[in-house]
Structures are given as structure tokens and as C-alpha cells.
Specification:
Strand content: under 5%
Structural class: mainly alpha
Radius of gyration: 36 Å
Distance between the termini: 91 Å
Oligomer: single chain
Shape: elongated
């Protein structure tokens, strides 16, 4: 880079020497030419200083300033050469207005100011001594550009403390105005920010991570950062950095992923999903006796040992997620301890020999017996002792903030991405979300709920993911459903809507006998907030729609829970955003259970006839077709006069 800048500086230096030489040979306007020569000499001295310090120059303003200076010197040379004209006829036909010299003198003065500012701003922090650098003439029309140049120059050459302050200034600029963020990227601010994130002090690293997160507000900006190496730096920080910095970095990951979904897989390729899950799991799972996780090299065994005074049941689920060695966060237990727990439980009953590779079937067939106590085995990804100790000593607020940001990052990384959702569900993340929905701070709970909403939304479309991650007998799935229903039943939290959506997304995973989620959703149809009623209707529609194999059972459950009367009210009197959702659900129920006594008593046929005459309700061809089909089915079973039941 220094060699390139030297080449850029060579031409204006040559032009300045030519101007000086031509001024000495001037035969007219000698005084004006002498003044131009004086300023040109001052300018060329500054240009030579810049050439000697080319390795320290901040490239972006250097190119702009040198280009502008070169144009000024070309004009100066042309003007001075006119004053060198010999012969009477040349002097007569060469007209030089006096204003031309004043204008040129002013332009040379501006070039001197620009190059002088460039040398000052490119000086190291110690040499500059925090002096006010002023405003270069080239940035007179856009003062903010000068401020951005100054801060980025400090990021390149300043001390760690000064670089931290500069990053904080860029955070303020990027937060205030999107255009300023664009300028920071265009002026080369991403590279030094990433460097500060790698090697700065904690405060500087936090400021750098914040700045990067704020700068990634559109796909073009995020793509620029990816080319600059943001994925590698983030992965290193999430693995080795201080927890405060890791938390801000996780937030930055969420911002970039939210604004440019194509970067999701790039983050996943750099192992960021696993690192985020490890932060989510730290001091989360082991605090709850419901959860037990062990890993034996490449295989992770989720074992939950539930005991009472008479017997114990050992449930084992195999998960092929962990490929790296792991260790116990509470001590130095070996990875074979879970194997010992399982085999010792088997031995208590029948004295079975310890198998070399215990299988799920073997464990289940030999696990009937009396167990007097719980056995818990918990593992975290391997980390150095110093790192683990540092994490454990962090204050609770920082730990919760770390979890909140990790959950937020997983939320945005999972959105619409089947492969990432599969990676998340094959890890311990679902268990962590279940715990954090119950025990976390509000931010942790909200981000966990949003992450589950996005994961279940993908699972609703991806059959393989749904069958592998949300099996009806899956312990993690049961715990998540319990927590989601608990929040829905309370119905007094801002977590309500994402939890409603998540339950709706899981509609095709429930058995026919499992109807406990229907009544709480039906109750929300009578909610005062239109948005809540709308989402409850949409969720129930996923249970009652034809695509759901158990639509008949679920439709009957909705009617039994009193859904018919609520839907009638919503279709007639609800806000427009609720009416259509309620109408679709009512149509599916009428289609599947047309002989329902409750539908007849609620005069559902009359409602459907009324809805078919409302133009805004039948604009959508799909809804109109569904409405006509449901109306026809009801007409077959319910006479308009008697409604079929008296």
C-alpha cells in the first residue's frame, strides 16, 4: 500500500516542480507568478513529507486529496506557462484576467490546507497529542466526512485507548444516521474495527462490536463486512473473548443475520451456531434436575433419570451433534460416567454385563428397577481452565445478557434456514430454551420464544426436521410445549404471540389424544387485543386445516372448548384483521364437523351465508372456495329453518 501511495504522490510532485520552474521563466505577471511559485514550493514540501510517511497515510482521504491537488497543479502550470509567452503577438493574443491568479492562489492555499491536514490526521496518536485537527477545505461541504476520516485514522494509528474512543464515536454516528454508517464503510472503517475487536481492550472490543452491528443495516453493507473477514473474527471472539465482548458480538451476529439472510450459512460454516449454543447452555441445564446430558466422543446421549420411591425409568435419546471433545463443567468426571450410570442401573436389576457400546434398546429393556437417587451428567464444550473460571466469575447480569444475545442470534440465524434449525435442534439448545423460558430475565425469555417461533416455523414446512426434532415422545419437545402452554394460559405477557405461533407451528406433531393446547388457544379468541385473537385463530387453523391428518379430532376439540360461539362473534363483530382468520377457521370446522350441534345452535350457516356476501371477505379466491365448500357441507346437514336440532 505504501508503494502505491508513493506512485500516486509522484505525479503531483513532478507537476509542482514544473510550476516552480515555469514561474521563474515568466515574462509577464511576474509578481503574480512569484506568489504562485511561493505557494507551490510550500505545497511540494508537504507532498514530499507525505511521500516519506506514505506507510502511515490513511488511504481513502489520501487518494481524494492527492487527486484534487493534482488537478489544481495542472491548472497552475497551464496558467504560469501562459505568462512565459515570448513575442509581441503572443502577448497580445494571450489574455489572462487578474482574477485567474486570485482564484489559483486560493486553490493552492486549499491544497496546502488539505495536505497539511492529511499529515496531521495520519500521525500516530502520541504525535498528535489530541490536538484539534480542524476542517480540511476538501470537506467544507460535508463536515461529517472529515469527522469520520479522523476517527478511522485514529483506528489505524492511535493507541488502544484512543482507538476505543474512536470506535465509540463511530457507534454514535452509525446510530444517528444510516447515511453516516454507509460513509464509514465506504471510507474503510470496517477493517480497523475488526482489528480492534481482535486485539483491543475490553471496552474497545465492545465498541468495535457495537459499531460493526450498527453498520450492517442492509445486505450490501453486510456483504462488505463478510468480505472483510467478519465471520472469522466473530468466531474467534465468541470462542475466546471476555463474556461482555462475546455478548455484544452475539448481538452483532443477530443484526447482520437479520439484515442479510444469505450470511446465515457463512456464520454456520465458521462454527458460530455451536459457540452460541454453548453460551446458551452455560450454567443453564445443570441447574435443573429435569435435564441430564452426556457425550461420549462423537455421540451425545441425552439421559433423563426420573425416580420415585418405587421405581425409576431411564429414557435415552441419541443425538449426533458433538464432534469435539467435551468436559464436565462441575468437575473432572470422564465421558464414560453416563455409561457407568446406565450400566450400574441395569446391574441393580439383573446383573447384566456392561456392553462395549450400549444401545438404546438394551438400556430400555434393562432399566426396570429401583433407583434410590437421581443421576445427572452434564457436559460443556471444552474450554481452558482460565476461560471457564473467568466465565463463572462474571456477574449475573452479564451472564443473562450473554444468554439473551445468544438466543437473539440463534433466532435470526434460524429464520427460514432448515440446515441451521437442524443443527440447533440436534444440540442442547431446545433444552436450554425450555429452561430459559421459565427462569430467564425478560430479554432472555423473549429471545428464546422468538427463536422457538422461527425454528418451529421451519419445522412446519420441513417434514424431516419436524419428525426428528419434535417427536411426540421427545423429552425436550414435551418440556418446550409445557412452557409455551404455561405462557399461553397466563395470557399476560408480551411473549404471548410468539408462543401462540410456536404452538401453531407444532400442530402436526401432537397425537389425537393430546388436546390440552386447544382450550387455552380457544380462550384467546375472546381476547380484547385483536392481534392476539388473530394469532390464536391462525394457530387453531393449523390444527383444523385439511393438511393436518388429525383435523377431525382437533376440530371436535375446538368445538368442545367453546370455539364456535367465539368464532361467530369474531366473524360478525371482530376487527377486519381478525375476521378473515376467524372465518377461515370456522369454515374448516364446518367442513369437517358439519353435523355439530354446537354449530347449529350458533347458527354457523347463517354466518357463512352473510360472509359470502361481503366483498372484502371473498376477494381471496382460496378463502372464497373454502367458504362455498363449507357452506355446502352445512346445508346438507342443517336445514335453514330448524338448524337440524330442536
Amino acid at each position: 500500500m505504501a508503494d502505491i501511495l508513493k506512485q500516486i504522490l509522484a505525479k503531483p510532485i513532478q507537476l509542482a516542480d514544473q510550476v516552480t520552474k515555469a514561474a521563474d521563466e515568466a515574462s509577464s505577471f511576474k509578481q503574480e507568478c512569484a506568489e504562485l511559485k511561493s505557494k507551490t514550493e510550500k505545497l511540494v514540501d508537504l507532498l514530499r513529507q507525505a511521500a516519506r510517511a506514505s506507510s502511515d497515510l490513511y488511504e481513502r482521504p489520501t487518494r481524494l486529496i492527492i487527486d484534487d491537488t493534482e488537478q489544481v497543479l495542472v491548472k497552475a502550470l497551464s496558467l504560469v506557462l501562459k505568462c512565459r509567452a515570448n513575442g509581441l503577438m503572443k502577448r497580445v493574443f494571450t489574455i489572462i484576467p487578474a482574477a485567474a491568479f486570485r482564484k489559483m492562489s486560493s486553490q493552492l492555499e486549499n491544497s496546502i490546507g488539505n495536505v497539511s491536514w492529511l499529515l496531521r490526521v495520519s500521525a500516530s496518536g502520541d504525535d498528535r497529542d489530541n490536538e484539534y485537527l480542524g476542517l480540511p477545505p476538501i470537506a467544507a461541504n460535508e463536515p461529517i466526512l472529515c469527522l469520520i476520516w479522523e476517527q478511522i485514522a485514529i483506528l489505524y494509528t492511535g493507541s488502544l485507548d484512543n482507538r476505543s474512543d474512536a470506535a465509540a464515536s463511530l457507534v454514535s454516528l452509525a446510530r444517528d444516521n444510516d447515511r453516516y454508517g454507509k460513509l464509514i464503510i465506504e471510507e474503510g472503517g470496517v477493517g480497523p474495527l475488526l482489528k480492534l475487536l481482535k486485539e483491543g481492550k475490553i471496552e474497545g472490543q465492545e465498541n468495535a462490536a457495537k459499531a460493526i452491528g450498527l453498520l450492517g443495516k442492509d445486505p450490501e453493507s453486510v456483504e462488505h463486512m463478510i468480505h472483510a473477514g467478519v465471520c472469522t473474527v466473530f468466531a474467534k471472539t465468541l470462542k475466546e473473548g471476555p463474556m461482555k465482548v462475546q455478548a455484544v458480538t452475539a448481538w452483532a451476529v443477530s443484526e447482520l443475520a437479520a439484515n442479510y439472510t444469505k450470511c446465515q450459512n457463512l456464520f454456520a460454516q465458521h462454527n458460530i451456531i455451536r459457540l452460541l449454543v454453548s453460551h446458551l447452555a452455560f450454567e443453564t441445564i445443570q441447574e435443573h434436575s429435569k435435564y441430564a446430558i452426556a457425550s461420549n466422543k462423537a455421540t451425545l446421549i441425552h439421559a433423563v433419570v426420573m425416580a420415585n420411591s418405587n421405581n425409576a425409568t431411564v429414557k435415552v435419546a441419541v443425538d449426533e451433534d458433538h464432534q469435539s471433545p467435551v468436559l464436565h463443567p462441575m468437575g473432572n468426571q470422564t465421558p464414560n460416567q453416563m455409561h457407568n450410570v446406565v450400566t450400574s442401573t441395569m446391574a441393580m436389576k439383573g446383573g447384566a454385563k456392561s456392553p462395549q457400546k450400549p444401545s438404546t434398546n438394551h438400556v430400555r429393556s434393562n432399566s426396570q428397577g429401583n433407583v434410590k437417587q437421581f443421576h445427572h451428567v452434564y457436559y460443556q464444550p471444552q474450554q481452558s481452565g482460565a476461560t471457564m473460571k473467568g466465565r463463572e466469575l462474571e456477574d449475573p447480569a452479564t451472564k443473562f445478557y450473554m444468554k439473551a444475545m445468544a438466543a437473539r442470534a440463534l433466532w435470526h440465524l434460524a429464520k427460514g434456514n432448515s440446515s441451521i434449525c437442524r443443527s440447533i435442534t440436534e444440540s442442547r439448545a431446545l433444552l436450554c430454551f425450555a429452561v430459559l423460558l421459565e427462569t430467564g430475565t425478560y430479554d432472555v425469555q423473549f429471545n428464546s420464544a422468538m427463536a422457538l417461533m422461527e425454528i418451529t416455523a421451519v419445522a412446519a414446512r420441513d417434514t424431516n426436521l419436524r419428525r426428528s426434532a419434535f417427536k411426540p415422545n421427545s423429552h425436550a419437545c414435551k418440556l418446550i410445549v409445557d412452557q409455551l402452554l404455561n405462557i399461553i394460559e397466563k395470557a399476560d405477557s408480551e411473549l404471548l404471540i410468539p408462543c401462540i405461533k410456536a404452538i401453531g407451528n407444532l400442530a402436526r406433531t401432537f397425537r389425537a389424544t393430546e388436546t390440552r393446547m386447544i382450550a387455552p388457544l380457544v380462550k384467546l379468541l375472546d381476547e380484547r387485543e385483536a392481534e392476539v385473537s388473530k394469532e390464536a385463530a391462525i394457530a387453531l387453523t393449523k390444527f383444523a386445516c385439511t393438511d393436518n391428518y388429525l383435523h377431525l379430532d382437533h376440530s371436535k376439540a375446538i368445538i368442545s372448548a367453546g370455539g364456535a360461539k367465539h368464532l361467530i362473534q369474531l366473524v360478525y363483530f371482530g376487527e377486519q384483521i381478525v375476521q378473515l382468520s376467524a372465518l377461515v377457521l370456522l369454515c374448516y370446522i364446518a367442513l369437517h364437523v358439519p353435523d355439530s350441534k354446537e354449530l347449529a345452535q350458533s347458527e354457523a350457516l347463517t354466518v357463512l351465508e352473510w360472509a359470502s356476501k361481503q366483498s372484502y371477505m371473498t376477494q381471496d379466491e382460496t378463502i372464497d372456495a373454502l367458504l362455498q365448500e363449507a357452506k355446502s357441507r352445512l346445508e346438507l346437514y342443517q336445514s335453514r329453518g330448524s338448524r337440524g336440532f330442536h
